[in-house]
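Example 4.3 (complexes with small molecules)
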Amino acid sequence: MVYFGLDAEEYDRNYSDKDLLTRISKYFGKYKKSMMIVIIITALSSMVSGSIPFLTSRVISLLELESNLSTLILVILSIFLLNFLGYIFNFINQIYTARVVNKVVYDLREDVNQNVLMQDMSFFDKYPTGKIVSRINSDTQSFGEMSNIFMQAAASLFAIIVIFIPLLSINLKLSGIFSLMIPVIFVFTLSFRKIARKKALQGQRILATVNAFVQETMAGIQIAKTFRQEDKLYSKFKKVNKQSYIINRNRAYYLNLMFPGLNMIQGITLTLVTYFGGTFILGGTNSGADIVLFTTSLASLFFPFFSIASFWPQFQTGMAAVERSFTLIDSTPLVVQENDIKIEKLKGKIQIKDLNFYYQSEKPIFKNFNLDINPGESVAIVGHTGAGKSSLARLLLRFYNFQSGDIIVDDNNIRKVNLESYRKKVGFIPQTAFLWADTLENNVRYGSENKTREEILWALDQAGGKDWIDALPKGIETDIRERGKLLSMGQRQLVVFARVLLQNPSILILDEATASVDPFTETKIVEATEKLMEGRTSIIIAHRLRTVRHVDRIIVLDHGQIVEEGNHDNLMEKNGYYAKLYQTYFMHQSYEFIDKIKTTK
Ligand SMILES: Nc1ncnc2c1ncn2[C@@H]1O[C@H](COP(=O)(O)OP(=O)(O)OP(=O)(O)O)[C@@H](O)[C@H]1O
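Answer. The structure with adenosine-5'-triphosphate bound is encoded below.
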């Protein structure tokens, strides 16, 4: 079977185990006090559980010497108390471990999420959302599981020390025989190391692929239904899911091979110890009770050893997961703020000088592009699809890094301005209105959190009236659901208009929606657009005839170049590129054209 979706992302790196452990220890280092408690309690708990078989065997020997019921009762009581103490220690240990591990996962998840939010748009173009989601959620969770297992392994290590030292006092030679087997256990488990990490990585990548697929399916469910593609989606999902099943099954098969192997080592060790122990009894070096104690203690040593050994593959899973989280934390955005010039006020003058930009180096979008826009000027950008209109808007918003040239706003190079203060002064209306699953009121208030309800109602009123709001179940307080599902397309646009009106930006960038709405809403949108443009520099990627007719200047773009500019009448007179565009595109929206069609019918 050919596997897919298992490739490393471009931002994947390979960290050394040392680097990873140093960074992990920094996360745990924040919770030193709790970690100290965990370590002390783990030591105490190991001492208690390690002393029980030893105490039991000594008591049996004592009873052989003097048969006394009260000694027996006393000893049984102390064993009970030790067990109880062990339980208490274990309980405290679990609570503190859970606290530390979950806090570390919380911190890691916060760091990953914060860095993802700081990325520029090119990052989100390249990496499917589902995969990013998987890294933020599942990988940090796997790391948490690994941390739990790590704590268990540490406890096992304590237990080994506590059980093994008394064994040395029983018979040094027998302890030596057992010690010879320790490297065998470790060599055996360490040989799983590399492949375990590889399998773990594959497991996580395929999970990310499944997540990405489900995410995309949900996002495009409406389109899928329109084209009746549910069956196709289902069979595609089956394919991805099957691959995930095979990878996880193989991983489990492989990892589970380890336990029968370890059992065999245990069997061989116990056989050897019993054989040599027997010869020591025959030779009179040790009593039978000593050897029985030795073998029973030895048996209880295997569990902690196995726990350490089995810890390895899971440790590798966690290391692979944390490595993936760290790569996200370390990936650097391409848009870098070179200085921190805060923008308090903008007049709205824009100069674009010798701009060069590409998404992919082999396909330049702008080559030495120049454009000056005056404060308060309204400019419509028109041109065929793919001309670079939206790219220009994205660059002005500094969503993408441009490779060379300058964009100067007032007198500030946008590479050097504080992006937060700059974007507050630039209002952007994308083609498709994006609304959050929140109330209508909070959606309008988005980005202008200190505005009152009156101001929100004013903005909605300016952006096309409030009548439609009264028809909503709870008016302005209605939860409009994911992406504003409860509203019509036109209403969604009006909400975004109101949002930008409230923001009161100095520069407006509007990517007019191409989707047509009913004539009534259309009129409202056009009026709202005109209101929005008043008194600000406006750059409009125009799809409406009324917009192109009313702006100060029309800029015609073709393959990233300005091919014509002027106002509607001049450009029509010129009978060039714009005139052709008008005839094929804008003319159909004119009343004259509609009337003509009606009369010819
Ligand atoms: N995120 C992206 N990654 C790679 N290439 C892109 C990206 N966005 C746009 N492009 C490419 O850049 C070119 C310009 O696209 P842009 O969206 O700016 O065109 P446009 O003039 O706004 O078109 P439309 O009117 O269809 O929206 C197109 O060839 C497009 O394929």
